[in-house]
Amino acid sequence: MNKNDIIEAIRGSMCAGLEIEERGIDRYVIHTDFTYPDGDELRIILKKQDSRWMLTDEGHTMMWLSYEDFNLNSAARNNLLSRALASNRAELIDGRICVRFEEDEAGGAVHSMIQALIQTADLIYTDREVIRSTFAEDMRNRFRSRLKEGTFETSKTVRNKKGERYEVDVYVEGNEPILVFAVNNKDRCLEATLAIVTLAAEDEMKFTSMIVIDEDADIPQTVRDRAISRADKAYVGLEEMDAGLSRFFEKINYAEI
Predict the structure, then answer these.
(1) Are residues 105 and 152 in the same domain?
(2) Is position 91 within any domain?
(3) For residue 98, what is the enclosing H or E element?
(4) Are the C-beta atoms of residues 85 and 97 closer than 8 Å to each other?
(5) What is the rounded average pLDDT for all residues in the chain?
(6) For residue 257, is it within any domain?
(7) Residue 181 Cα distances to 105, 159, 214, angstroms
(8) What's the CA gap between 121 and 127, in Å, rounded?
(9) For residues 43 and 58, is the Cβ–Cβ distance under 8 A?
């Protein structure tokens, strides 16, 4: 299929509002009726690179997000972006969103590109609670990948002697279990601190406590400091946890997978 066939395949797959403008050798701007949230047209370039056709936004979408003060400085946000791209067969290459395709996939590739750009731009509307819940699940998944099956539970309810319930994100079995709390807002920080103090002081339960704090969480410093001082181990952010978890397990003589 030559480039004229590719262009015709793209035209045939879209509505009448689509226009293709030539901008150089094997380089075209695809105009659609789709826009970013601010009304600007989606930036879609069709070009040939290394003998293969691809669609790219040339970094426009990520730049647009940065202008809106949205950044990807957390694992949670990066996870949301990865999901949006993967579901549309798109890639992020040096800040540019790209869809590579075989010549007979041209029409479908444009649809994938449009969806990838729209879903990426729509991250600006992502509710903070969604990001927070994603942070907690990301943390639990990282423990799942490191611990032997059957040696831990996630989202476990622990009760004290009075029957009061405390939600533990990861409960690692053992003579002295490890209780891990994902802290992603002020209320959860207070809950984790209360659980650690109550179970240890009032119930005299023997355990090792760990908190992992979302670095983007809006938690007053005094509340955060109190939780850190009560926990046996505290990490700020998933990257810090990843870097220190093996040393922590080694220190308490717990064997990972």
Answers:
(1) no
(2) yes
(3) strand 96-100
(4) yes
(5) 86
(6) no
(7) 46, 15, 11
(8) 14
(9) yes
Place of tokens 């991250």: 123
Structure tokens at 196: 């650690």
End of a domain among 106, 126, 146?
126
15 and 106, same domain (yes or no):
yes
pTM of the predicted protein model? 0.54
| Beta-carbon-side half-sphere exposure of residue 118 (alpha carbons within 13 Å) | 12
Q: Which two tokens stand for residue 190?
A: 């207070």
Q: Are 47 and 98 in contact (CB under 8 A)?
A: no
Residues 68 and 39 in one domain: yes
State whether 157 and 231 are in the same domain: yes
| Domain-located, residue 57 | yes
- In terms of domains, do 242 and 134 share one? yes
List the one residue out of 166, 185, 173 whose CA is nearest residue 143: 173
Shared-domain flag, residues 228 and 201: yes
Name the amino acid, one letter, at 32.
T
Which residue has 């045939």 as its token pair? Answer: 12
Q: Indicate whether 38 pLDDT > 80.
A: yes
Q: Say if residue 80's pLDDT is above 90.
A: no
Report how far residue 219's alpha carbon sits from residue 248's, in angstroms, rounded to the nearest whole number. Answer: 25
* Domain assignment present for 256: no
For position 225, which CATH number holds? 3.40.1350
Confidence of residue 118 (pLDDT cuts 50, 70, 90): very high
Where does residue 3 rank: exposed (0-12), middle (13-18), buried (19+ CB within 10 A)?
A: middle
Taking phi first (over 0 means left), then psi (-120 to 50 degrees means alpha), and beta for anything else, what does residue 192 get? alpha
In the chain, how many domains are there? 2
Residue 44, SS3?
A: coil
Q: By residue range, what is the domain housing residue 120?
A: 3-126
Residue 87 in 3-state DSSP? Answer: coil
